[in-house]
Amino acid sequence: DGYGWASGGYIADSKIDGEVGPYSQQQWYTRDSSVGGWGNGVWNMTFSGVEGAPAQSFPEPPYTTLETTPVSREKPFLYLDGDDYKVFVPAKRTNARGTSWGNGTPEGESLPLDQFYVVKPGATAETINAAVDQGLHLLFTPGVYHVDQPIEIDRANTVALGLGLATIIPDNGVTALKVGDVDGVKVAGLLVDAGPVNSETLVEVGSDGASGDHSANPTSLQDVFVRIGGAGPGKATTSIVVNSNDTIIDHTWVWRADHGEGVGWETNRADYGVHVKGDNVLATGLFVEHFNKYDVQWSGENGKTIFYQNEKAYDAPDQAAIQNGDIKGYAAYKVDDSVTTHEGWGMGSYCYFNVNPDIRQQHGFQAPVKPGVKFHDLLVVSLGGKGQYEHVINDIGDPTSGDTTIPSQVVSFP
Length: 414
Description:
Layout: E1 9-12, E2 15-16, E3 27-35, E4 44-51, E5 63-66, E6 69-72, E7 77-81, E8 84-90, E9 93-96, E10 108-112, E11 116-119, H1 125-133, E12 137-140, E13 144-147, E14 151-153, E15 159-170, E16 177-179, E17 186-193, E18 199-205, E19 220-228, E20 236-242, E21 248-256, E22 272-276, E23 282-289, E24 296-298, E25 303-311, H2 319-322, E26 333-335, E27 342-351, E28 360-361, E29 365-366, E30 373-382, E31 388-389, E32 408-413
């Protein structure tokens, strides 16, 4: 009481001496950190590589705990070295536990600012791409950048770092950002805001059919947020498409707006949130909400997701609007039938069909029943009885009911 409500949050690479009390946070993910204790949990508290994390105990208390994070790399950051600005690029870690800096200077490299094109308001996609072609990294200062062609990063190890949620808006339905199928690109701290003309995609990592092996030096998207509507009408068929193998998706909020300006079932139409086609892709802290069809669709092999937070689209007008063949509604997270290996931990989906509370969602999660496809600690919740789920994953898990906002849970699948 008194703390309000919030649907999810994230801590990474942090040391907290005292006990953390998330209070009303319904879902929370903590990665590669050290905490002095954890005070409570609402529906889903997930930890990977966290010293001091509570033991695995889902569903009561609702703690999902992994000893380590399989692969991680902290995002680049700007810092002052004497009188000189530099950007530090942390190194990749495998089976990480605790902070990257707790035992002294973290591994990685410092890049002087003269190796960057400092992007300022008024810059065009053409000038940004020319800078990349010249071998420069990108540092976006706070501002709103309209682009009439994609920003294209085809050079391995390029850093594209945004400050102050630097915002890219595609004009005339173009893709805002395209990353080539190359090693080690680091994209961090950017907001992509869909434009009023529908874009087929907003962010692409690798081209369709990409096949390179990037396991030694993966590309990463970190603190990359996508918004469709909210500031004004916007449309996109698919927000993020990941074609490149081994990509790290870390703390990504992909949001079709449910409030603000330019909001409506067709006004800010966006069918798909994130579509992963590459193999060996890892998502840590995946937040995807309110899309008209699948919020997440996973077609690549050996994918892993540690923590997923989702709300289905609030504004569906009726059952027919979300009908998916003979299935009631599109899953919040769908693993394609062709996939043989996939694993997820600590994942939740909510419904709040406030326009039509009679809508039924068949399930939050959909996946093929195969030995290599595994999920741990899933839940679905009806918020205040505005619509209901019939199952958690496929046809497994109890239905939600009434208006008591009590989760239905599945501890393991299959």
